[in-house]
Design goal:
2 copies of one chain form a homodimer. The first copy, chain A, is α/β, with parallel strands linked by helices. The first copy, chain A, has 3 domains: about 35 residues, no CATH class; about 130 residues, Response regulator (Rossmann fold); about 130 residues, Response regulator (Rossmann fold). Chain A contains 11 helices and 12 strands. In chain A, the strands form 3 sheets. A 6-stranded parallel sheet of chain A has the order 2-1-3-4-5-11, with helices on both faces. The first copy, chain A, has a 4-stranded parallel sheet with strand order 7-6-8-9. Chain A has a two-stranded antiparallel sheet with strand order 10-12. In chain A, helix 1 crosses helix 2, helix 7 packs parallel to helix 8 and helix 9 crosses helix 10. The interface between A and B is large, with 51 and 51 residues. Strand 2 of chain A pairs antiparallel with strand 2 of chain B, so a sheet runs across the interface. Chain A binds a DNA duplex through helix 1 and helix 3.
DNA sequence: AAAATCATTGAAATGCGTTTCATAAAGGTG
DNA sequence: CACCTTTATGAAACGCATTTCAATGATTTT
């Protein structure tokens, strides 16, 4: 017969307890199928060992999250958290405002936040971080970010795409995406840089696409084809679905892909490889992303203030 | 100045507290940014208002969860849980065995489970349910299931696919999938039924595909094309990726889709609509699925034993 | 006006680990 | 052998909200 504290210590592998005692406790606990009450643990302890993960493209949008990339990222984060024995509290899209975030933290529902998809919420996140809330954000870091951002090297991604297009002999680019999203703006800037550095006279058009769906990209592509006199010979789309929509629209318009025009997407979602033709795209290391997001947050919880980080980003050349 | 219990009652909207008092408490709480400690709440209360969601295709497989359908389902569940003010604890793939499940329940980490993807774990789930654990499973119900299963009407899905293929004038079917997964077996059975009821002499071939990935489906398709003398004129694949892989492989082999052969997939993942040609497939109402999964579990937690249910399932005819 | 009922509120108990602090036993030193 | 460390363990306090249960004052009934 041993006392409560001894049991507690034995179960938490404390070195203060005698080896024989520990083994005995573990044996009995096992025999009776005993499991410590996580809630009591969380109540008493300083940490809850729970991380809240918010998955959203901006609270203003009601439509379904659809970019498979975000889900793969979630899978990566889930895995990384599991490795560190942290519970993952998935935040429903309907409570993704500052108040709910604060609430979750205040109520000790979680120790910190991983925010997947910065969207247009930089100010909100900044304000939130200002309060000392432990957050790590997937996205692109504002210059003066007061929170830790982990993301693809979007500028490099844009450069890689641009250089590839230059190499293909393309001289008239079209960028598709909403550059007011910082990540997308960075990609646009990288593309521009590659164009400028090429030494060629390269024109860069823009379609500001304010939706993430394939459908609206397809519509936008057709509208564009209706009004343009000289079609571009290269497209860099902010994501793969959009790239696919443009491939389809151009093909329907009798423009041969990749003969007449080269198209590059972003994220390398699974279907990018199976599209016809397979989509050239920019891939990020999602497993690394998950690991880094979690690692950064852990360091923040330990009182450090880790710098933002960029994830491995590379060009995958396929049929377009 | 009011006492603890009064505050507690005021915050939980108890009718036992005076209206003026409640408003005062709420005002003060608001002013000080007070939030109840969820852990104390969970420790004391009978329910934790947390639901664990397990997302996995079978514990034996290490590879990444990739079917976008499962993620959409997760989104649906997340939404439905949010509507009911339930927290969502996402279980990492690395603890998806009975023991971990039991552990989560015992440790009061969650009130119940939503298992997305039954896989080959029917026995495990049955055993788990036998202990009285509140679980709802996405999949297809075994005849003698002792747990609540919510899923697509897979048999109907198979019938719809089969009837469609018959209508297209097809008489030689190929089913692709591993029928040892109950859901897939049901689809196969539905297809067979449609073939039998058609009144035509219809041959049904099988490829037992033991992987869920596009790549292995593509390989399997090519291997099949190498050995077959008379190719089939219809394919029903257990999911959309596989359907796409077969479309690609047949096309590469010079068989025209949909002229020479009709192909039907399952799930209606987003890219199915954008493939070329767009893939005919069986769609399920994912929002309904999320809502029903959650509703069933809530009823179980209220002591009822709701019956299994089938989700709206329909054929989406596209280019194949 | 006395009795009974209702509406509010608070004191104390409860749920269950963890931590602090004190104690006891065992081992080591001079 | 007296004295100082270690080592191991337990008693009590703590974290915080909820739930009895009792008490108070207010209101209504007889």
């Amino acid at each position: 017969m041993v006392s409560k504290p001894t049991v507690s210590r034995a179960l938490s592998n404390s070195p203060l307890v005698n080896k024989a005692t520990r083994e005995h406790v573990l044996a009995v606990a096992n025999e009776h199928g005993y499991a410590v009450n996580r809630n009591a643990q969380k109540l008493r302890g300083k940490r809850t060992n729970t991380i809240a993960v918010s998955l959203d493209f901006g609270s203003h949008r009601k439509n379904h999250i659809s970019d498979p990339f975000m889900f793969e990222l979630l899978a990566g984060v889930s895995e990384a958290l599991g490795d560190r024995n942290q519970d993952l509290l998935l935040c429903a899209p309907n409570h993704n405002d500052t108040l709910s975030f604060q609430q979750i933290l205040m109520s000790r529902g979680a120790d910190g936040f991983i925010v997947l998809g910065q969207g247009h919420r930089e100010d909100m996140l900044s304000e939130f971080a200002e309060t000392g809330a432990p957050i790590v954000v997937w996205g692109a870091a504002p210059e003066d970010a007061n929170y830790c951002v982990v993301g693809s090297d979007n500028y490099l991604g844009g450069q890689l795409a641009g250089r590839h297009l230059v190499e293909q002999g393309r001289r008239h680019f079209l960028f598709v995406g909403d550059p007011s999203f910082r990540e997308i703006g960075m990609r646009r800037a990288g593309l521009q840089n590659a164009a400028d550095e090429s030494g060629f006279e390269i024109e860069v058009d823009d379609i500001e696409l304010h939706s993430f769906s394939y459908e609206s990209a397809f519509v936008a592509a057709n509208r564009y084809l209706d009004v343009i006199e000289t079609p571009p010979d290269a497209v860099f789309a902010f994501n793969d679905s959009t790239a696919m929509a443009f491939i389809a629209a151009f093909r329907d318009a009798g423009i041969s892909v990749p003969h007449d025009i080269s198209i590059v997407g972003y994220n390398d979602i699974p279907s990018a490889a199976y599209f016809c033709p397979p989509v050239t795209t920019i891939r990020q290391d999602i497993h690394q992303a998950g690991r880094v997001l979690v690692a950064k947050l852990m360091r923040i919880l330990d009182g450090e203030t880790p710098a933002s980080a960029l994830i491995k980003t590379k060009l995958i050349v396929r049929g377009t």
